[in-house]
Protein backbone atom coordinates (compact mmCIF):
# COMPACT_ATOMS: atom_id res chain seq x y z
CA UNK A 1 0.00 0.00 0.00
CA UNK A 2 1.55 3.29 -1.14
CA UNK A 3 0.66 6.97 -1.34
CA UNK A 4 0.51 8.02 -4.99
CA UNK A 5 -0.84 11.58 -4.86
CA UNK A 6 -1.17 14.57 -2.53
CA UNK A 7 -3.37 17.53 -3.49
CA UNK A 8 -4.06 20.78 -1.67
CA UNK A 9 -7.13 23.01 -1.83
CA UNK A 10 -6.71 26.48 -0.30
CA UNK A 11 -10.27 27.76 0.11
CA UNK A 12 -11.95 31.12 0.55
CA UNK A 13 -15.69 30.99 1.11
CA UNK A 14 -17.88 34.06 1.54
CA UNK A 15 -20.20 33.47 4.53
CA UNK A 16 -23.46 35.23 5.25
CA UNK A 17 -21.90 36.65 8.40
CA UNK A 18 -18.27 37.45 9.20
CA UNK A 19 -16.70 35.31 11.91
CA UNK A 20 -17.33 36.99 15.30
CA UNK A 21 -20.11 39.08 13.77
CA UNK A 22 -20.73 41.64 11.03
CA UNK A 23 -21.79 41.57 7.41
CA UNK A 24 -19.42 40.83 4.50
CA UNK A 25 -18.44 43.77 2.30
CA UNK A 26 -17.67 42.88 -1.31
CA UNK A 27 -15.64 46.05 -1.75
CA UNK A 28 -13.47 45.65 1.35
CA UNK A 29 -10.15 43.82 1.51
CA UNK A 30 -10.27 40.22 2.72
CA UNK A 31 -8.13 40.91 5.79
CA UNK A 32 -8.73 43.45 8.50
CA UNK A 33 -7.09 44.21 11.83
CA UNK A 34 -9.19 43.89 14.99
CA UNK A 35 -7.51 46.28 17.44
CA UNK A 36 -9.36 44.83 20.43
CA UNK A 37 -7.74 41.43 19.74
CA UNK A 38 -4.49 42.71 18.16
CA UNK A 39 -4.94 40.22 15.38
CA UNK A 40 -5.77 39.97 11.67
CA UNK A 41 -9.04 38.32 10.67
CA UNK A 42 -10.55 37.47 7.29
CA UNK A 43 -13.95 38.53 6.02
CA UNK A 44 -14.18 35.10 4.41
CA UNK A 45 -14.05 31.55 5.74
CA UNK A 46 -10.56 30.40 4.80
CA UNK A 47 -8.98 26.98 5.18
CA UNK A 48 -6.73 24.51 3.42
CA UNK A 49 -7.86 20.95 2.70
CA UNK A 50 -5.47 18.19 1.69
CA UNK A 51 -6.39 15.00 -0.17
CA UNK A 52 -4.07 11.98 -0.01
CA UNK A 53 -4.63 9.11 -2.44
CA UNK A 54 -3.33 5.55 -2.11
CA UNK A 55 -2.47 3.22 -4.98
CA UNK A 56 -5.80 1.39 -4.65
CA UNK A 57 -7.71 4.65 -5.26
CA UNK A 58 -8.77 5.21 -1.65
CA UNK A 59 -8.48 8.78 -0.38
CA UNK A 60 -8.12 10.51 2.98
CA UNK A 61 -8.95 14.14 3.69
CA UNK A 62 -7.26 16.47 6.16
CA UNK A 63 -7.39 20.14 7.01
CA UNK A 64 -5.20 22.82 8.56
CA UNK A 65 -6.73 25.55 10.65
CA UNK A 66 -5.65 28.30 8.26
CA UNK A 67 -8.04 31.26 8.64
CA UNK A 68 -5.50 33.61 7.05
CA UNK A 69 -3.49 33.01 3.82
CA UNK A 70 -4.27 29.27 3.45
CA UNK A 71 -2.20 29.22 0.27
CA UNK A 72 0.89 29.18 2.50
CA UNK A 73 -0.19 25.78 3.85
CA UNK A 74 -0.74 24.51 0.32
CA UNK A 75 2.74 25.57 -0.76
CA UNK A 76 4.39 23.94 2.25
CA UNK A 77 2.61 20.64 1.74
CA UNK A 78 3.18 20.60 -2.01
CA UNK A 79 6.85 21.50 -2.02
CA UNK A 80 8.10 20.26 1.36
CA UNK A 81 5.93 17.33 2.45
CA UNK A 82 4.68 15.77 -0.77
CA UNK A 83 8.15 14.43 -1.76
CA UNK A 84 8.36 12.77 1.68
CA UNK A 85 4.92 11.21 1.32
CA UNK A 86 4.91 9.84 -2.23
CA UNK A 87 5.70 6.12 -2.27
CA UNK A 88 5.33 5.77 1.51
CA UNK A 89 2.78 3.58 3.25
CA UNK A 90 -0.06 5.48 4.95
CA UNK A 91 0.33 3.04 7.84
CA UNK A 92 3.79 4.52 8.48
CA UNK A 93 2.03 7.67 9.67
CA UNK A 94 4.07 8.02 12.88
CA UNK A 95 7.31 7.81 10.89
CA UNK A 96 6.00 10.31 8.34
CA UNK A 97 4.86 12.63 11.13
CA UNK A 98 8.35 12.59 12.64
CA UNK A 99 10.02 13.21 9.27
CA UNK A 100 7.74 16.15 8.51
CA UNK A 101 8.44 17.67 11.92
CA UNK A 102 12.18 17.05 11.61
CA UNK A 103 12.30 18.52 8.10
CA UNK A 104 12.55 22.11 9.41
CA UNK A 105 13.23 21.81 13.16
CA UNK A 106 16.90 22.81 12.92
CA UNK A 107 15.72 26.02 11.24
CA UNK A 108 13.44 26.85 14.14
CA UNK A 109 10.14 26.04 12.41
CA UNK A 110 8.65 24.13 15.33
CA UNK A 111 5.35 26.07 15.32
CA UNK A 112 3.31 28.23 12.95
CA UNK A 113 2.44 27.36 9.38
CA UNK A 114 4.92 24.47 9.17
CA UNK A 115 3.14 22.59 11.95
CA UNK A 116 -0.29 23.60 10.66
CA UNK A 117 0.62 21.97 7.35
CA UNK A 118 1.82 18.87 9.20
CA UNK A 119 -1.51 18.77 11.07
CA UNK A 120 -3.47 18.71 7.83
CA UNK A 121 -1.43 15.82 6.44
CA UNK A 122 -1.66 13.93 9.74
CA UNK A 123 -5.47 14.17 9.78
CA UNK A 124 -5.61 12.97 6.17
CA UNK A 125 -3.42 9.97 6.99
CA UNK A 126 -5.70 8.98 9.90
CA UNK A 127 -8.73 9.31 7.62
CA UNK A 128 -7.02 7.23 4.93
CA UNK A 129 -5.95 4.51 7.39
CA UNK A 130 -9.49 4.28 8.71
CA UNK A 131 -10.94 3.96 5.24
CA UNK A 132 -8.41 1.30 4.24
CA UNK A 133 -9.23 -0.70 7.39
CA UNK A 134 -12.95 0.12 7.29
CA UNK A 135 -12.77 1.47 10.84
CA UNK A 136 -13.66 4.89 12.30
CA UNK A 137 -10.82 7.05 13.57
CA UNK A 138 -12.04 6.86 17.17
CA UNK A 139 -11.67 3.06 16.96
CA UNK A 140 -8.09 3.45 15.74
CA UNK A 141 -7.46 5.71 18.74
CA UNK A 142 -8.55 2.98 21.13
CA UNK A 143 -12.31 3.37 21.21
CA UNK A 144 -14.95 5.89 22.25
CA UNK A 145 -15.70 6.89 25.83
CA UNK A 146 -19.02 8.43 24.80
CA UNK A 147 -21.64 8.01 22.08
CA UNK A 148 -22.08 11.76 21.63
CA UNK A 149 -19.78 14.67 22.44
CA UNK A 150 -20.89 17.47 24.81
CA UNK A 151 -20.27 20.97 23.51
CA UNK A 152 -20.70 24.65 24.26
CA UNK A 153 -21.86 27.43 21.94
CA UNK A 154 -18.89 29.68 21.23
CA UNK A 155 -19.64 33.37 20.95
CA UNK A 156 -22.81 35.37 20.55
CA UNK A 157 -22.09 37.41 17.38
CA UNK A 158 -24.61 40.21 17.79
CA UNK A 159 -23.82 43.95 17.98
CA UNK A 160 -25.71 44.86 21.16
CA UNK A 161 -25.85 43.31 24.61
CA UNK A 162 -29.62 43.04 24.39
CA UNK A 163 -29.32 41.08 21.14
CA UNK A 164 -26.64 38.84 22.63
CA UNK A 165 -28.92 38.04 25.55
CA UNK A 166 -31.73 37.18 23.17
CA UNK A 167 -29.47 34.92 21.09
CA UNK A 168 -28.30 33.17 24.26
CA UNK A 169 -31.91 32.49 25.22
CA UNK A 170 -32.56 31.09 21.75
CA UNK A 171 -29.68 28.64 22.15
CA UNK A 172 -30.85 27.66 25.60
CA UNK A 173 -34.30 26.93 24.21
CA UNK A 174 -32.65 24.58 21.69
CA UNK A 175 -31.00 22.58 24.46
CA UNK A 176 -27.61 24.33 24.53
CA UNK A 177 -27.05 25.30 28.12
CA UNK A 178 -23.30 26.07 27.95
CA UNK A 179 -22.11 29.27 26.26
CA UNK A 180 -18.75 30.98 25.89
CA UNK A 181 -18.62 34.76 25.58
CA UNK A 182 -15.96 36.38 23.39
CA UNK A 183 -14.97 39.36 25.52
CA UNK A 184 -11.74 41.12 26.52
CA UNK A 185 -13.12 44.68 26.36
CA UNK A 186 -12.08 45.76 29.85
CA UNK A 187 -12.87 44.30 33.26
CA UNK A 188 -15.98 46.39 33.90
CA UNK A 189 -17.39 45.88 30.41
CA UNK A 190 -16.72 42.13 30.52
CA UNK A 191 -18.44 41.73 33.88
CA UNK A 192 -21.39 43.77 32.63
CA UNK A 193 -21.75 41.38 29.68
CA UNK A 194 -21.47 38.24 31.79
CA UNK A 195 -23.91 39.55 34.40
CA UNK A 196 -26.48 40.30 31.70
CA UNK A 197 -26.14 36.83 30.14
CA UNK A 198 -26.31 35.19 33.56
CA UNK A 199 -29.52 37.10 34.34
CA UNK A 200 -30.95 36.14 30.94
CA UNK A 201 -30.19 32.41 31.27
CA UNK A 202 -30.49 31.83 34.98
CA UNK A 203 -28.25 29.98 37.43
CA UNK A 204 -28.57 26.63 35.61
CA UNK A 205 -26.58 27.83 32.57
CA UNK A 206 -22.85 27.10 32.27
CA UNK A 207 -20.87 30.17 31.20
CA UNK A 208 -17.29 30.58 30.00
CA UNK A 209 -15.30 33.69 29.07
CA UNK A 210 -12.66 34.09 26.35
CA UNK A 211 -10.59 37.21 27.13
CA UNK A 212 -8.51 37.02 23.93
CA UNK A 213 -5.15 37.63 25.64
CA UNK A 214 -6.08 41.19 26.58
CA UNK A 215 -5.21 41.49 30.27
CA UNK A 216 -2.32 41.88 32.67
CA UNK A 217 -2.03 39.52 35.63
CA UNK A 218 -3.57 42.06 38.02
CA UNK A 219 -6.42 42.89 35.63
CA UNK A 220 -7.11 39.22 34.97
CA UNK A 221 -7.14 38.51 38.71
CA UNK A 222 -9.68 41.29 39.20
CA UNK A 223 -11.77 39.92 36.34
CA UNK A 224 -11.56 36.40 37.74
CA UNK A 225 -12.88 37.54 41.11
CA UNK A 226 -15.91 39.08 39.44
CA UNK A 227 -16.42 36.03 37.23
CA UNK A 228 -16.28 33.72 40.22
CA UNK A 229 -19.14 35.63 41.82
CA UNK A 230 -21.11 35.04 38.61
CA UNK A 231 -20.28 31.30 38.66
CA UNK A 232 -18.24 31.29 35.44
CA UNK A 233 -16.68 27.89 34.77
CA UNK A 234 -13.47 28.90 33.00
CA UNK A 235 -11.50 31.96 31.93
CA UNK A 236 -9.82 31.40 28.57
CA UNK A 237 -6.73 33.18 27.22
CA UNK A 238 -6.55 35.88 29.91
CA UNK A 239 -2.88 36.81 29.25
CA UNK A 240 -0.53 36.92 26.29
CA UNK A 241 0.25 33.32 25.26
CA UNK A 242 4.01 33.77 25.75
CA UNK A 243 3.59 34.54 29.45
CA UNK A 244 3.87 31.17 31.18
CA UNK A 245 4.96 32.67 34.52
CA UNK A 246 2.10 35.15 34.44
CA UNK A 247 -0.41 32.36 33.89
CA UNK A 248 1.08 30.44 36.81
CA UNK A 249 0.75 33.50 39.05
CA UNK A 250 -2.82 34.10 37.89
CA UNK A 251 -3.81 30.48 38.45
CA UNK A 252 -2.64 30.73 42.07
CA UNK A 253 -4.86 33.77 42.54
CA UNK A 254 -7.90 32.68 40.52
CA UNK A 255 -10.82 30.66 41.83
CA UNK A 256 -12.01 30.36 38.22
CA UNK A 257 -10.21 27.62 36.20
CA UNK A 258 -7.77 28.92 33.57
CA UNK A 259 -8.07 27.55 30.02
CA UNK A 260 -5.62 28.02 27.16
CA UNK A 261 -3.94 26.32 24.24
CA UNK A 262 -5.30 27.31 20.84
CA UNK A 263 -1.98 29.04 20.04
CA UNK A 264 0.14 26.01 20.96
CA UNK A 265 0.86 23.22 18.50
CA UNK A 266 3.03 20.60 20.20
CA UNK A 267 3.44 18.85 23.53
CA UNK A 268 6.70 20.77 23.90
CA UNK A 269 4.79 24.06 23.90
CA UNK A 270 2.16 22.79 26.35
CA UNK A 271 4.72 21.25 28.70
CA UNK A 272 5.85 24.44 30.54
CA UNK A 273 2.25 25.50 31.20
CA UNK A 274 1.56 22.06 32.66
CA UNK A 275 4.75 21.72 34.67
CA UNK A 276 4.50 25.23 36.10
CA UNK A 277 0.84 24.61 37.02
CA UNK A 278 -0.25 27.54 34.90
CA UNK A 279 -3.41 25.98 33.44
CA UNK A 280 -6.47 23.94 34.44
CA UNK A 281 -7.99 23.10 31.05
CA UNK A 282 -5.98 22.52 27.86
CA UNK A 283 -7.42 23.63 24.51
CA UNK A 284 -5.36 22.16 21.66
CA UNK A 285 -6.83 22.56 18.18
CA UNK A 286 -6.57 19.47 15.96
CA UNK A 287 -6.24 21.74 12.90
CA UNK A 288 -2.99 23.03 14.40
CA UNK A 289 -1.73 19.88 16.12
CA UNK A 290 -3.03 17.03 14.02
CA UNK A 291 -4.59 13.96 15.61
CA UNK A 292 -1.28 12.32 16.55
CA UNK A 293 0.07 15.32 18.46
CA UNK A 294 -3.26 16.15 20.08
CA UNK A 295 -3.36 12.67 21.59
CA UNK A 296 0.20 13.17 22.90
CA UNK A 297 -0.86 16.46 24.48
CA UNK A 298 -3.93 14.78 25.95
CA UNK A 299 -1.81 12.01 27.45
CA UNK A 300 0.50 14.59 29.00
CA UNK A 301 -2.54 16.39 30.43
CA UNK A 302 -3.91 13.16 31.84
CA UNK A 303 -0.71 12.45 33.77
CA UNK A 304 -1.22 15.81 35.53
CA UNK A 305 -4.96 15.21 36.04
CA UNK A 306 -5.96 18.06 33.73
CA UNK A 307 -8.97 18.14 31.43
CA UNK A 308 -8.95 18.79 27.68
CA UNK A 309 -11.45 20.99 25.87
CA UNK A 310 -10.36 20.97 22.21
CA UNK A 311 -10.45 24.35 20.52
CA UNK A 312 -12.54 24.51 17.36
CA UNK A 313 -13.08 27.78 15.51
CA UNK A 314 -13.08 28.21 11.73
CA UNK A 315 -11.97 24.70 10.77
CA UNK A 316 -14.40 23.20 8.29
CA UNK A 317 -15.41 19.58 7.51
CA UNK A 318 -12.31 17.41 8.17
CA UNK A 319 -11.19 19.57 11.10
CA UNK A 320 -14.58 19.39 12.81
CA UNK A 321 -14.96 15.66 12.17
CA UNK A 322 -11.44 14.98 13.49
CA UNK A 323 -12.21 17.05 16.60
CA UNK A 324 -15.34 14.99 17.28
CA UNK A 325 -13.48 11.67 16.92
CA UNK A 326 -10.67 12.83 19.21
CA UNK A 327 -13.14 14.19 21.77
CA UNK A 328 -15.00 10.87 21.80
CA UNK A 329 -11.70 9.05 22.47
CA UNK A 330 -10.54 11.26 25.38
CA UNK A 331 -11.25 9.91 28.89
CA UNK A 332 -10.69 13.37 30.41
CA UNK A 333 -12.72 15.45 27.95
CA UNK A 334 -14.20 18.68 29.32
CA UNK A 335 -16.27 19.84 26.32
CA UNK A 336 -15.81 20.52 22.63
CA UNK A 337 -16.34 23.96 21.11
CA UNK A 338 -19.27 24.62 18.73
CA UNK A 339 -19.33 27.48 16.23
CA UNK A 340 -22.81 27.39 14.62
CA UNK A 341 -22.08 29.66 11.59
CA UNK A 342 -18.89 27.71 10.87
CA UNK A 343 -20.64 24.34 10.97
CA UNK A 344 -23.15 25.63 8.45
CA UNK A 345 -20.37 26.54 6.01
CA UNK A 346 -18.58 23.26 6.70
CA UNK A 347 -21.68 21.26 5.87
CA UNK A 348 -21.90 22.99 2.49
CA UNK A 349 -18.73 21.06 1.55
CA UNK A 350 -20.06 17.68 2.72
CA UNK A 351 -22.45 15.23 1.10
CA UNK A 352 -23.96 14.39 4.49
CA UNK A 353 -23.99 17.05 7.20
CA UNK A 354 -22.29 16.86 10.56
CA UNK A 355 -24.91 17.25 13.30
CA UNK A 356 -24.87 19.18 16.55
CA UNK A 357 -28.12 19.20 18.49
CA UNK A 358 -29.26 19.85 22.06
CA UNK A 359 -25.75 20.45 23.38
CA UNK A 360 -24.04 17.48 21.74
CA UNK A 361 -22.23 16.57 18.53
CA UNK A 362 -23.27 13.32 16.90
CA UNK A 363 -20.35 11.01 16.24
CA UNK A 364 -20.06 10.58 12.48
CA UNK A 365 -20.63 7.01 11.33
CA UNK A 366 -18.49 5.21 8.79
CA UNK A 367 -14.83 4.56 8.15
CA UNK A 368 -12.10 7.12 8.75
CA UNK A 369 -13.49 10.50 9.70
CA UNK A 370 -16.94 9.34 8.59
CA UNK A 371 -17.50 12.23 6.18
CA UNK A 372 -17.79 12.47 2.41
CA UNK A 373 -16.31 15.59 0.85
CA UNK A 374 -18.17 17.18 -2.07
CA UNK A 375 -15.04 17.65 -4.17
CA UNK A 376 -16.82 19.62 -6.86
CA UNK A 377 -17.99 22.15 -4.26
CA UNK A 378 -14.46 22.27 -2.85
CA UNK A 379 -12.96 22.97 -6.25
CA UNK A 380 -15.47 25.77 -6.80
CA UNK A 381 -14.16 27.46 -3.64
CA UNK A 382 -10.43 27.11 -4.34
CA UNK A 383 -8.67 30.44 -3.90
CA UNK A 384 -6.08 29.71 -6.57
CA UNK A 385 -5.08 26.79 -8.74
CA UNK A 386 -4.99 23.41 -7.01
CA UNK A 387 -1.39 22.64 -6.08
UniProtKB/TrEMBL annotation:
Species of provenance:
Franconibacter pulveris
Record has Lyase as a keyword: yes
Per UniProt, which keywords does this protein have? Answer: Lyase
Query: Per its UniProt record, what Gene3D superfamilies does this chain match?
Result: Enolase-like C-terminal domain (3.20.20.120), Enolase-like, N-terminal domain (3.30.390.10)
Q: What Pfam families has UniProt attached to this entry?
A: MR_MLE_C, MR_MLE_N
Q: What is the name listed in the Swiss-Prot or TrEMBL entry for this protein?
A: Enolase
GO BP terms: namely: amino acid catabolic process
Q: What CDD domains does the database record attribute to this sequence?
A: MR_like (cd03316)
Amino acid sequence: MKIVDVQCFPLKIRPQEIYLGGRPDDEAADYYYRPEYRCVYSRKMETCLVKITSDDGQVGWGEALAPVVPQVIAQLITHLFKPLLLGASPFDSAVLNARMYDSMRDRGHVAGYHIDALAAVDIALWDLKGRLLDLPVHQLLGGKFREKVPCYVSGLPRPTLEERCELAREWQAKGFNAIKLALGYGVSEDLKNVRAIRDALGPQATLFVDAHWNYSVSEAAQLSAGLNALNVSFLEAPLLPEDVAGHAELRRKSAVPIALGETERTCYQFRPFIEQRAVDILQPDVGRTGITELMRIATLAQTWHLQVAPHLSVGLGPCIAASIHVAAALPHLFMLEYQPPVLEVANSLLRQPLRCEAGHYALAQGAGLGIEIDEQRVRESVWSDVC
